[in-house]
């Protein structure tokens, strides 16, 4: 075989392996779609986890969740509540957090059975079959539609299966109330901002649901040796986590609570200032909730009646970890209000952690210097990939290792898996980021293919 052909074939094999490694999501997707147009039809069984629809009572409803199938509450030192993104794959979030916990235990300071993982399921009405239903309960029900032709707050990596989401256009939202359980169900993605559930009627919202989950673990009669609960969210789940960290009313256990916010499309800003120009289309609405404190707030928020300055001081006093991938240049929801916070997940995180938080009243007052209880990790070689972020070295560190011991010291880290923290980028690096991973790989694959074609005899 010609040496040029051999070289081109080797390059192709290496690059194909590289692509496979970058997209090796261990997740399970019933039906093969990462975010099915018509919703999930089943909740898959995951080894090591159980599906619970009775333990967490939220008003007149229950919050369905995946949780470790067998745990001894007397041994538990840490609980991780891992919240899915827009595609509502709670089972995968449990699996990813379980993998992170297994990695953390390899450091030698704790064992996997000292950690319990919970992954809530925020259903929407399209998930009929994943929740039990009976169409005859509302025979005259109508539907509405939601336009998803623009990029959404999805947990699907940009370029790796994302194009199908961007092309799918409008999807139906069934408005019939046909559930045969008390499981909390929303119409669409409004759970990410703390909104009340659509079913059952008069049910509370996702903030109250998180209160129920957090308080379940903080109960010392149930978990007598628990030291820390980590409320963790990716993408739309991170939006919910940011807003929950802002508005959770109970501060009595803040020393045992941490928030883990990875790759959100937006934050709730607590002042009128934004890092980028405010477009004319939203000049009078850019600060409306869920992007600011104006407009209609969820009942959970409006009933607490704290001033913006009080909200800021409470938020700054809480333990919050921020993470984003250095290759996460995906845009998320492309609209006026979130665009004033940045153009992609990476620069939105940069502006929030390097400019906005430091300059809030009562914070450090210095750009690039976060308040004492906040930390940020920019994760190298990572895009908008939940599984990769959660199981990365920084993911394991902030979910499991930070302040593991009762005296506040960290647990030892396991051997690196190669997905590490990068140096904090400059604003120029963020705003002039390199093309996406996929674009680079496509270019390399194309070059290898051209080399192979040139080398082939005519």
From TrEMBL:
Region (Disordered): 133-161
SUPFAM superfamilies hit by this protein: alpha/beta-Hydrolases (SSF53474)
Bias (Polar residues): 141-155
Highest taxon, organism lineage: Eukaryota
Record's keyword annotation contains Transport: no
Signal peptide: 1-21
Alphabetical UniProt keywords: Signal
Key word RNA-binding present: no
Protein name: Transmembrane protein
Lineage: Eukaryota, Fungi, Dikarya, Basidiomycota, Ustilaginomycotina
């Amino acid at each position: 075989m010609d040496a040029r052909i051999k070289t081109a074939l080797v390059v192709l094999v290496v690059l194909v392996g590289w692509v496979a490694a970058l997209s090796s999501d261990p997740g399970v997707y019933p039906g093969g779609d990462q975010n099915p147009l018509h919703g999930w039809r089943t909740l898959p069984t995951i080894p090591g986890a159980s599906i619970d629809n009775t333990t967490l009572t939220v008003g007149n409803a229950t919050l369905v969740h995946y949780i470790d199938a067998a745990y001894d509450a007397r041994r538990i030192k840490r609980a991780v509540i891992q919240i899915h993104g827009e595609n509502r794959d709670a089972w995968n979030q449990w699996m990813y957090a379980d993998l992170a916990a297994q990695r953390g235990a390899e450091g030698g300071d704790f064992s996997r059975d000292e950690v319990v993982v919970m992954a809530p399921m925020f259903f929407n009405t399209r998930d009929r079959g994943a929740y039990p239903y009976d169409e005859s309960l509302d025979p005259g029900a109508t539907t509405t539609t939601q336009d998803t032709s623009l990029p959404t707050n999805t947990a699907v990596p940009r370029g790796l299966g994302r194009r199908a989401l961007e092309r799918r256009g409008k999807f139906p939202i069934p408005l019939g109330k046909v559930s045969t359980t008390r499981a909390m169900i929303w119409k669409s993605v409004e759970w990410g901002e703390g909104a009340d559930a659509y079913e059952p009627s008069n049910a509370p919202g996702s903030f109250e649901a998180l209160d129920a989950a957090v308080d379940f673990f903080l109960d010392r009669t149930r978990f007598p040796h628990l030291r820390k609960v980590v409320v963790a969210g990716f993408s739309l789940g991170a939006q919910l986590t940011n807003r929950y960290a802002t508005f959770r009313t109970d501060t009595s256990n803040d020393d045992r609570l941490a928030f883990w916010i990875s790759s959100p499309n937006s934050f709730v800003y607590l002042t009128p200032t934004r890092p980028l120009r405010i477009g004319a289309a939203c000049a009078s609405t850019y600060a409306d909730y869920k992007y600011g404190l104006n407009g209609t707030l969820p009942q959970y928020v409006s009933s607490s009646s704290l001033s913006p300055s009080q909200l800021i001081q409470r938020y700054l006093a809480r333990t919050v970890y921020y993470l984003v991938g250095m290759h996460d240049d995906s845009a998320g929801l492309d609209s006026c209000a979130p665009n004033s916070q940045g153009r992609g997940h990476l620069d939105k995180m940069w502006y929030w952690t390097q400019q906005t938080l430091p300059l809030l009243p009562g914070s450090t007052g210095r750009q690039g210097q976060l308040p004492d209880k906040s930390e940020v990790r920019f994760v190298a070689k990572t895009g908008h990939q939940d599984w990769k972020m959660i199981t990365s070295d920084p993911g394991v560190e902030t979910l499991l290792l930070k302040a593991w011991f009762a005296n506040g010291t960290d647990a030892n880290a396991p051997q690196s898996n190669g997905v590490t923290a990068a140096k904090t980028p400059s604003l120029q690096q963020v705003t002039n980021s390199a093309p996406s991973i996929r674009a680079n790989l496509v270019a390399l694959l194309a070059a290898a293919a051209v080399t192979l074609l040139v080398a082939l005899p005519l």
